[in-house]
């Protein structure tokens, strides 16, 4: 596949940075990275997909090379992402869109497909189906004060405590921070956009510290269930295994609800970590290619 072109999308607070893979005269699938990741999370995967297709991989606000929010403003990651998708759709004048998202990116796609059911053709989510982590602890009222205080801490902190270190040490920090779930090569991919030069062969992380507190607007389980039933597009969910057995019943419940209204819903299990698409893209590329190119006659399929 031809190397991607850097893409800048203007927004009121600055710009969204991205990478456009494939023909520019064809509407791309919008690809959204996970929490604190960036567009480079798809770098090993996209070259394995059909080269005649196009993909627009974006850095979310406060991530990668995209502009941070103005000082003092919090991030509401899921809802901000849905608004951003609408901005991108309107910016290019597309009647409908295709979405591929990993983790947070998949959750954003889930929400957008629910609130704009006629504006999404295809949704592919990688190792997530919905914000089901919020089912496990619904006592957010008691936690909200601490979350707000932590946001204020990060807001005042800015980047004053961020590490300034050599390239190798920054990669090591990233590797250790993911607890062995990322390979060193995967960390190097992410850090092509995840850090910037400070001069004298030193680097700092590029993400905004405030994104660490982007979950201060929880979604209720009933809201998530309602969203699941509202989705109408073709939907491929790729789930890494082994998965957490304690959360699987909730995960499966949401999948079943999506299948009640989706044009097509398919779950595929692949062995790997949460970042299997980045660590081992060869395990997911054929499933994604097949889903983008062909429609399955079975409405609900688990393989």
Question: How would you characterize this protein structure?
Answer:
There is one protein chain. The chain is an alpha/beta fold. The protein has one domain: Rossmann fold, CATH 3.40.50. 35% of the residues lie in helices and 21% in strands. It contains 9 helices and 11 strands. It has helices at 77-92, 104-115, 140-157, 167-177, 184-194, 221-230, 248-261, 276-279, 285-293, and strands at residues 5-11, 14-21, 29-32, 55-58, 97-102, 120-126, 195-199, 202-205, 234-241, 264-271, 300-302. The strands form 2 sheets. Strands 1-2-4-3-5-6-9-10-11 form a 9-stranded mixed beta sheet, with helices on both faces. Strands 7-8 form a two-stranded antiparallel sheet. A hairpin with a 2-residue loop joins strand 7 (195-199) and strand 8. Helix 2 packs across helix 6, helix 4 (167-177) crosses helix 5 and helix 6 (221-230) packs parallel to helix 7 (248-261). The model has no long low-confidence stretch (mean pLDDT 93).
Question: Helices and strands in order, then pairings?
Answer:
Layout: E1 5-11, E2 14-21, E3 29-32, E4 55-58, H1 77-92, E5 97-102, H2 104-115, E6 120-126, H3 140-157, H4 167-177, H5 184-194, E7 195-199, E8 202-205, H6 221-230, E9 234-241, H7 248-261, E10 264-271, H8 276-279, H9 285-293, E11 300-302
How would the global form be characterised?
Answer: globular
Instruction: Identify the CATH class.
Output: Alpha Beta
Q: What is the number of helical segments per DSSP (H or I, 4+ residues)?
A: 9
CATH H level, superfamily name: Alpha/Beta hydrolase fold, catalytic domain
Main beta sheet: strand number and arrangement?
Answer: 9 strands, mixed
Strand order of the largest sheet: 1-2-4-3-5-6-9-10-11
Order of helices and strands: EEEEHEHEHHHEEHEHEHHE
The average pLDDT score comes to 93
CATH architectural type: 3-Layer(aba) Sandwich
**Beta-strand segment tally:** 11
Instruction: State the end-to-end CA separation.
Output: 29 Å
pLDDT < 50 runs, ≥5 residues: none
Number of structurally distinct domains: 1
What is the helical fraction, as a range of percent? 25-40%
Q: What is the CATH topology assignment?
A: Rossmann fold
Could you say which structural class the secondary elements and strand pairing correspond to? alpha/beta
């Amino acid at each position: 596949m031809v190397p991607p072109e850097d893409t800048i999308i203007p927004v009121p607070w600055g710009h969204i940075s991205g990478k456009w893979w494939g023909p520019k005269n064809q509407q791309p699938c919008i690809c959204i990275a996970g929490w604190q990741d960036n567009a480079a999370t798809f770098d090993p995967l996209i070259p394995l997909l059909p080269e005649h297709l196009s993909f627009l991989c974006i850095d979310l606000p406060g991530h990668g090379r995209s502009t941070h929010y103005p000082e003092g403003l919090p991030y509401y990651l899921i809802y901000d992402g849905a608004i951003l998708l609408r901005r991108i759709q309107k910016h290019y004048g597309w009647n409908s869109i295709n979405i591929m998202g990993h983790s947070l990116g998949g959750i954003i796609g889930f929400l957008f497909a629910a609130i704009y059911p006629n504006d999404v053709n295809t949704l592919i989510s990688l190792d997530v189906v919905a914000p089901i982590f919020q089912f496990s602890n619904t006592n957010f009222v008691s936690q909200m004060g601490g979350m707000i205080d932590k946001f204020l801490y990060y807001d005042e902190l800015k980047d004053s405590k961020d590490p300034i270190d050599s390239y190798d040490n920054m990669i090591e920090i990233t590797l250790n921070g993911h607890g062995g779930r990322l390979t060193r090569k995967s960390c190097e991919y992410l850090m092509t956009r995840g850090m910037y030069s400070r001069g004298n062969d030193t680097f700092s992380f590029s993400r905004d510290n405030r994104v660490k507190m982007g979950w201060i607007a929880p979604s209720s389980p009933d809201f998530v269930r309602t969203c699941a039933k509202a989705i109408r597009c073709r939907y491929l969910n790729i789930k890494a295994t082994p998965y957490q057995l304690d959360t699987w019943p909730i995960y499966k419940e949401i999948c079943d609800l999506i299948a009640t209204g989706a044009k097509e819903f398919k779950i595929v299990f692949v062995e790997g970590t949460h970042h299997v698409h980045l660590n081992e893209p060869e395990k997911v590329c054929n499933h994604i290619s097949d889903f983008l190119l062909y429609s399955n006659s079975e409405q609900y399929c688990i393989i």
